[in-house]
Nucleoside diphosphate kinase
Amino acid sequence: MERTFAIIKPDAVERKVSGKVLAMIEEAGFNIVGMKKIHLSKCEAEGFYYVHKERPFFGDLCSFMSRSPVIVLALEKDNAIADWRSLMGATNPANADAGTIRKELGVSIEENTVHGSDSPESAAYEIPYFFSQLELV
Ligand code: RTP
Ligand code: MG
């Protein structure tokens, strides 16, 4: 079993589609081993996305991620990291395959509904950024 980290981003929580995202996660066979709703500060968003700090969209991304609450998730499944990236779809919803979360629910390249770890190294940074061992069941 592998674990990955996911976020239901502010655009989805604001539009009240987080239940739809959770249903797609469960239907795809993921076990939710950690879940909580939090409102990130700008500083916390910057720490989470520090790998993107030189990218032109970094400031906008951190403002977006801290503008309203998100739901953070730890997901478990065989091949969880790659399978969650597949279920999310391409970064830009316009390029995402039918049936993916970003195609069905995404708004724009920035407001794309969900985040997912892109490697075992990212998952190992991201899960403990939000969850203590006691919060993972
Ligand atoms: P994520 O990290 O959120 O799972 O998304 P990703 O791997 O598909 O995309 P990444 O390149 O890591 O970008 C992180 C997030 O930054 C926003 N973004 N905005 N305005 C833009 O051109 C742009 N490009 C990326 C998106 O919210 C993207 O998910
Ligand atoms: Mg990424």
Observations:
- Helices lie at 10-14, 18-27, 42-48, 58-65, 80-88, 101-105, 120-130.
- The pocket of ribavirin triphosphate (ligand 1) is lined by residues 57, 61, 91, 109-110, 112, 115-116, 118 (CB under 6 Å).
